[in-house]
Structure formats: C-alpha cells, structure tokens
Amino acid sequence: MPDDFERMWGDLAPVGRAVSSGGYFRQPFTTPERELAAWFVEQCEARRLRVETDAFGNVVGWWDGGAGPAVLTGSHLDSVLDGGAYDGPLGVVSALAAIDLMRSRGVVPARPVGVSVFVEEEGSRFGLACLGSRLATGATSWETARELRDREGVRLGDVVEGGTSALLADVGTFVELHVEQGRDLVDRGAAVGVASKIWPHGRYRFDFTGSANHAGTTRMEDRQDPMLTYAMTALAANKQARLAGQRATFGRIEVEPNGTNAVPSKVTAWLDARCSSDDALVGLVEVVSRQAAERAERDGTAVEVTAESVSGSVAFDPDLAARVAADHEGPDWPVIPTQAGHDAGILSAAGIPTAMLFVRNPTGVSHSPAEHAEVADCLVGVSALADTLERLTR
C-alpha cells in the first residue's frame, strides 16, 4: 500500500508544475488538468472500477457491489493559480489507495462505493467555487453556469457540453479527505481530524470608478482616484476582520487603464470573506461596504458592490462525524471546523449525509507551493478513510 500511494503521488507531481515557483497551474479544462483527468480514468480502469462521466466533466469510478444507497468519496484535481500539490489531489489519490486497502483486507462492500473527481472546485478559471458539485447537485443551473467566462472571455458553455447530471442520484453518503488548510491538527498533535462544519463564505466584486488623468500634471487635490478608495477599503476590511476574529481578503484586482503614468479610471477588486456564522458574514460585508462608500464620497469616486457567490454555513452530520472520529483503534480523532469551502459542503447542503477527514499539514500553509503533508500522515489518512468506507458499506 505505501508503494501504491507514493507511486500515484509521483505520477501527479510534475503535471502542471511551474519551474519558477514550484506551484501548480491546473485550471479546469486546460491541458494539465485534462491530463490528470485522463490519469484518473486510467487508474479507475486499472482497478476495474466502472467509469461514469456527466455532462459537466465530473467523473466517478464505481466499485459496484451489493445494493442500496452508494457511498461516495473523492475530491478534485484542479488548483488555484500557483497553488499547492495537496489541495484536492490528496483526496483523490487517498480514495484510490483506500479502495486498494479495502480489497487487500478482503472487504466485499454491501453497497456500491464510488471515487469522484469534481471539476472547477477552486473557481480559479470561471470564478464560481465548487462549480462541478454545484451543477451535479442542481445548486447552480446550467442556464446560469454556461454564461460564466474566464479571464480571456472564454464562455463555459463553449468548453463543455452541459445539460444534466445523474452521478449523485443513488448516493447515500459522501466522505471527502482533504489536506488541512491550517495548523489546528499540528497544535493538537494529531495526524487526522474530522470536520464539524464549514464557515460561511462569499466572493464579492467591488467596482471602484473615478477619472483617468495624468500622473504628473494632475494635482493630488484635483484627483478622483479609485485606487486610493480601493486601498483604504482593503485596509478597512483587514481591520474589521481582525477585530471580529473573522477572515477578509482582497486577493485579486484589475486596473484600467493600468498604466504607470496614469491615474486609473477604474479598479475592480474581489473580496473573499469568511466568518464563523451567517450573521457575522453579513455584518462584516456590510461594514466594509459602508466604509468603502464613505471613502468614495471623500475621494470623489464611486463604488458598487456585487455578491458573485455566497455559501451559507454548513454543519456536517454530527452523528456521522462522531462515528468517524471514534470508531477506530486509539484516541478519538479531533472534530474541528474548517474555514475553507469544499465539494463536501455542497453535497451536504443538498441533503446528502457528509463527513470530511483532514490530514495534518505541518506548514499550515495552503493555496501555495508551501502546502505539504508528510507521507506517514497521508498513509494514516488512507487507513482512516478505508476504515470509514468499510463501516459505511457493511
């Protein structure tokens, strides 16, 4: 089993990796991500798993057996821009390795078991996180999704056929394994943890508009500079999130005309906000938006705020989480919340009983080349996932 896991991990390591940074560029429906998707199908076929694909590019390899509601596991293979190796692929490789481990134990599942790969989980190309699972569950309609465009203006409807999905029709339980995106497990000294809930989170577009002008000849007091309004808004978001113990990040901006010697006419910035409760999220975005408007009035600029996607708080099935945390040799795995969004949250919100396993990340860093997990901890995760799937398929 260690050789199987490490060999698979070695197969993925070079795909989509940038030489300069060591980070990964595996955006949906680009060559690196499609190479990984083809690799996954090959791995499923090598294990005699029946491969099923829907109209959006989501894939499941089915270990058919028994009857009744299926147990699904898996994750995603796409990455953020210049991302880490583990976010997503660890859950896919671990799921395949867990199937191998179960078979080596002589397990004959009384229910079908599936290994899934959902597309565009990160939202790094078409801007909507967990897009594949949203489409598979019906949380987002194809009529809406097909009009999404990437940074080059390519329309999603011109990349995939679209339509409907029946991949999840017979799924009774979903379990996702994921690298931890923080240091909670490091601080607890635990290799594996179990998710209790996902914080609510949203992506908001701030359009700041002003007047383009010459950077040299325009007096400072005569400017209507949207970059200044944006800068003060970013500082305000940071302050408000720190005061409330929440999360607020401006990580992407676009500037027009984007010239070194010109006062910009427009700055578009995207706020990623995550909070411990739905009310806290609403409150944080409201206060940042209000402060942005107040600053715009002083600067002679304007600001418009658009919620591009908002996901409410997701509480995972507490009984299932307790069973996953306790039903194994040794101390119970810790049950912890996560501030990151996952396909598991979409399936849970759709009414599918769902659990998540986390594998310790010694750096605590994610969405970065520094993201990491030790092989020994990964193998503990594989064993924990196999144990969980075995119990659920009895």
Automatic annotation (TrEMBL):
<dbReference type="InterPro" id="IPR002933">
    <property type="entry name" value="Peptidase_M20"/>
</dbReference>
<protein>
    <submittedName>
        <fullName>Allantoate amidohydrolase</fullName>
    </submittedName>
</protein>
<dbReference type="InterPro" id="IPR036264">
    <property type="entry name" value="Bact_exopeptidase_dim_dom"/>
</dbReference>
<comment type="similarity">
    <text>Belongs to the peptidase M20 family.</text>
</comment>
<dbReference type="Pfam" id="PF01546">
    <property type="entry name" value="Peptidase_M20"/>
</dbReference>
<dbReference type="InterPro" id="IPR010158">
    <property type="entry name" value="Amidase_Cbmase"/>
</dbReference>
<keyword id="KW-0378">Hydrolase</keyword>
